[in-house]
Amino acid sequence: MAISETSAMSDNAGNSEATKESVTTAFQNKLRFHEEGLALSRLEHDNGLHIGVVANLNMAADLSDIGDCHRSMGNLAAAMNNYQECLTIQRAVHETKGEDCSSEITMSLGNIGTCLLKMGNYGEALSCYKESLNMTKFHGDGANHEDFIVRLNNLGLCHFRLGKYKAAMKYLKRSHEMCMAVHDGQYTEDMVGTLSNLGLCHMTMGNFSSAMDHFQQSLALQETFVGSGANHPNIALMLNNIGMCLGELGDTLAAMQSFKKSLKMRKSIHGKDAKHNEIAATLSNIGVNHQRRGDFAAAEKYCKKSLSMYRTMYGRNANHHDIAQILNNIGMCQAYSGNFANAKAYLQQSLDMMKAVHGEDAKQMEMAKILMNIGQCHGTNKEDFPLELEYYQKSLEMYCAIHGEGCKELPDVATLIKNIGQCHLKLGNLSTAKETLEKSLNTRRTIHGNEANHPEIAATLTLLGHCLFRMGDDMAAARATCEEALAMLRAIHGERANHTEIASTLSFLGNILASSGDLDGALECHEESLRMFRACLGDDKEDSLYITLARNMMEDCQAKKRDQDAASLEGILFYHSQLLF
């Protein structure tokens, strides 16, 4: 199933507050100062001490500063209210002067766009950024003006969130190139965010080596400005993004270390008990990483912490992109634990919320992932297999609508192709299944490298081994393929690690060994598989589908061994087909 990590992008509006006190405390102090200033400006306006343009622009400046404080503390609704009131005053002032635009108006539009972006209203944010960018050009600020650079970066962010990665890359590269031109080829602190954003685009497109280079360059650059080891929002951001890239590469242990460093730093910055979108994002990513490691109880715990924090921030009944992502992740935890009815409910809720946020007919990457996940949850009953394929086809059509033919080189689409192959395998379309799985495997190896160890490569190898076994033409190849998958999973997760993917592969391998007459080897695989499923799923999940199947296979193998009977191919195929669910 496709996970949904919370991509942390930078709007180049970070802060460089001193780290001796919580940044949140610093902004609370600044907020009080600016609120007092606004109250004084209103009083002076009402008493006629300052009139006309001066009084109004003083109030607008105070409102903008108050909005900045709220935004930095994660209070996005409050920030929006202040920015919008500020913009209304600025437009009225400049209208009286016969001006359609000003640098103050372009800044306010950019600030509103950033809030909309963080609140998940990407289309509205894009409109604000475009108006701001056009105004910057019209205002004659110069082709290489700093504001112009920021607007280009933020347009890149919007296109990224809308799933338009090529357009995002175009804007981000223009921002980076212009910044280098302005500063005579010298790196500045503003470039940290743009480098990181370019890294996220590369990561989403499957260019993991380029992504990691950008993240590490961005981290090193930020540390030159604030010091190595300093508590700083941009350093926490880079650690989060490096964790995401490591997770995609299959190094879940290193990813967890990076996420936990990011979480610790973000709590230090914003306050241990603060409700902040950056903290919620890292909690979500830790949950996803636990899921990759097969610890679904921990995964669900962290995802629900993140969900609770987002709902506190945005409203319990709010529709938001980030909330929809978390609902998807919780649904996946339920599915991996065998609770498919609950999984479908969470995933449908996630899809409905994405449609509410982006539009009923929107084409959006996260929606494509959710469609794929719903499809896989329909793969538990034979009569639902056509529906499973239907969801996969909808997902593939959405990916192609977003990315064109190039979508077939994306990691998520490689996973989708693998799932389609798995569905054909369950339906008994073995030639189609083999061809589809080999296509997915080749794409993954193109992305990660022929010698790479990656969870999705291992999962595809396991399915391909099963397909070869079902076809019966080359049992040695079937066994070798499953053993390659098992070795890869152990290399990724650890030789002694407990993981549901390892347990499933052991079961597949045990069935292949049993069909070849190696009942001792088969029993060893099934006993280890059952022990591992129990360790991963918990003592209260004894009646789950995975544990039940593993136990039945072990007991069947024990009975065959006692009676010295060869394992029946029909019985093995039954268990094999059940495992595919």
Keywords, please?
mainly alpha, elongated, single chain, 581 residues, disordered N terminus, Serine Threonine Protein Phosphatase 5, Tetratricopeptide repeat
What does this 3D model show about the protein?
With 581 residues, this protein is an all-alpha fold. The protein has a domain at 386-579: Alpha Horseshoe (Serine Threonine Protein Phosphatase 5, Tetratricopeptide repeat), CATH 1.25.40.10. It is built from 25 helices and no strands. It has helices spanning 23-46, 52-72, 76-96, 103-118, 122-138, 146-161, 165-182, 191-204, 208-226, 233-248, 252-270, 277-292, 296-314, 321-336, 340-358, 365-377, 385-403, 411-427, 430-448, 455-471, 475-493, 500-515, 519-537, 545-563, 569-579. The longest helix has 24 residues, at 23-46. The protein is elongated, with a radius of gyration of 27 Å. The two termini are 12 Å apart.
Instruction: Extract low-pLDDT stretches.
Output: 1-7, 14-21, 138-144
- Strand content of the residues, in percent? under 5%
State the fourth-level CATH superfamily of one domain: Tetratricopeptide repeat domain
Helix fraction bin: over 70%
Largest β-sheet summary: none
Helix vs. strand class: mainly alpha
CATH topology of one domain: Serine Threonine Protein Phosphatase 5, Tetratricopeptide repeat
CATH C-level label of one domain: Mainly Alpha
Count the helices. How many?
25
Radius of gyration using CA atoms only: 27 Å
